[in-house]
């Protein structure tokens, strides 16, 4: 088994996959916070969580090329391959769960945005309707003035 050697490509791949999985777990925890903040209309905190998630996702994504290189260097006879494939599947499932959560959050944020836009449009319509019926009480001066005298 070549996967036991800490410098072997299999050991490197397993280590990198573990790091990537841990990073995605952190993103998953932030997904829960993100969903809660959407429900609570906490825009500033939501932006901070989204920014933090982006940084962590960048780190997780950066590991992908390293993982691919390490896996490509593993001999097909290495007994660690099943464990590596298992970890890759776990990472992929976690990424799918995050994507699913993001899609649901996007729908909820879009609905909230549309509700806000409708409320603003309604306020503007009400103001225009109210303005149409207001009487202008500013003095205008004489409507007709005879200047021939």
Question: Explain this structure to me?
Answer:
- There is one protein chain.
- The protein is an all-alpha fold.
- It has a domain at 2-101.
- Helix content is 77%, strand content 0%.
- It has helices spanning 9-39, 43-72, 81-133.
- The termini are far apart.
SSE blueprint and pairings:
Elements: H1 9-39, H2 43-72, H3 81-133
Helix pairs in contact: 1-2, 1-3
Task: Name its key features.
149 residues; mainly alpha; rod-shaped
Which value, in Å, is the CA radius of gyration? 30 Å
Label the structural class. mainly alpha
The N- to C-terminal Cα distance equals 118 Å
Total E-strand runs: 0
Q: Report the principal-axis shape.
A: rod-shaped
Strand percentage: under 5%
Largest sheet: none
SSE string, helices as H and strands as E: HHH
Question: Ranges with pLDDT <50 over ≥5 residues?
Answer: none
Number of helices: 3
Overall pLDDT metric: 86
Estimate the helix proportion, in percent: over 70%
Structure in a nutshell:
With 149 residues, the chain is mainly α. 77% of the residues lie in helices and 0% in strands. The protein has a domain at 2-101.
């Amino acid at each position: 088994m070549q996967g036991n050697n800490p410098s072997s490509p299999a050991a490197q791949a397993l280590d990198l996959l573990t790091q990537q999985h841990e990073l995605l777990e952190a993103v998953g925890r932030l997904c829960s916070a993100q969903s809660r903040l959407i429900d609570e209309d906490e825009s500033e905190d939501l932006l901070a969580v989204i920014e933090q998630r982006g940084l962590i996702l960048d780190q997780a994504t950066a590991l992908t090329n390293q993982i691919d290189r390490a896996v490509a260097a593993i001999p097909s006879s290495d007994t660690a391959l099943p464990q590596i494939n298992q970890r890759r599947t776990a990472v992929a499932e976690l990424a799918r769960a995050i994507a699913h959560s993001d899609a649901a959050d996007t729908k909820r944020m879009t609905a909230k945005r549309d509700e806000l836009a409708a409320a603003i449009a309604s306020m503007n319509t009400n103001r225009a309707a109210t303005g149409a019926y207001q009487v202008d009480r500013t003095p205008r001066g004489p409507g007709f003035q005879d200047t021939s005298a």
